[in-house]
Amino acid sequence: MWSQIKEGINKGVHPQHVALIMDGNRRYARSKRLPSTYGHHLGRKKLKEILRWFYDLQIEYVTLYAFSTENFERDDQEVKELMQLFEKSFREIVNHPEIKKRKVKIKVIGRTHLLPRNVQDAIKEAEESTQYDNEGPNLIIAVGYGGRAEMIDAIKSIAKKIENGEMSVDDINEVVVERHLYTNGIPDPDLIIRTSGEERLSGFLTWQSAYSELYFADVYFPGFRKIDLWRAVRTYQSRQRRFGK
């Protein structure tokens, strides 16, 4: 089965941009009778493995939904642990041998000003240390992100320019809106994968997902396997994308 799926993938068109909603860390931990917050550590470990799978498939853009604006409402101790994990992960990126080898470019999107200062500093260091001149895969990480929040921030930015006389209401079109989103310059995702069996996007890339293909994997994120990714990509390749035409 594995060889047949891999052969089919190789023959098909690979998505340029895959976005991933990493859901189910806590439920996975509870299913293993572990503390629920330990699931985030397991998810972090799994992510390192999954990123290699993406890069082996030569996916140019990978966007991860790591922490939403709503997640700030979780238990204080859980949020604190997550922030510690984020800082540790971004610090590691700076000298990570595989990141350097593949020349992965890091970009973080969201209301990062809401994050603790130490996390903001780690993000800045990770972004600045991975701005390679030549082409390489792009890793976009959504932290403190919400699709509605992104739209509100874009609207405010456009409104401010109108107020300052830099543009008029009649100048607003899809291109203008896209230029004011966090993802300016990044192509819309071709495929969005969500783990855990939940079948919704939960505010992830609200504008950008208009014509994305969706794949819902019935497995918690720490249990996500290479064959699950292959099946998602194979399913994407089997669909005919019409973009409303």
The level-1 CATH class of the largest domain = Alpha Beta
Which secondary-structure class do the elements indicate? alpha/beta
Please state the overall shape, judged from the principal axes of the Cα atoms.
Answer: globular
Question: What's the CATH architecture of the largest domain?
Answer: 3-Layer(aba) Sandwich
Distance between the termini: 35 Å
Radius of gyration: 19 Å
* CATH fold descriptor of the largest domain: Undecaprenyl pyrophosphate synthetase
Question: Proportion of β residues?
Answer: 5-15%
Tell how many strands the DSSP assignment holds. 6
- Sheet with the most strands: spatial strand order: 3-4-2-1-5-6
- How many H/I helices? 9
| Low-pLDDT residue intervals, each spanning 5 or more residues | none
What does the average pLDDT come to? 94
Helix content: 40-55%
Q: Major β-sheet, in short? A: 6 strands, parallel
Superfamily (CATH H level) name of the largest domain: Decaprenyl diphosphate synthase-like
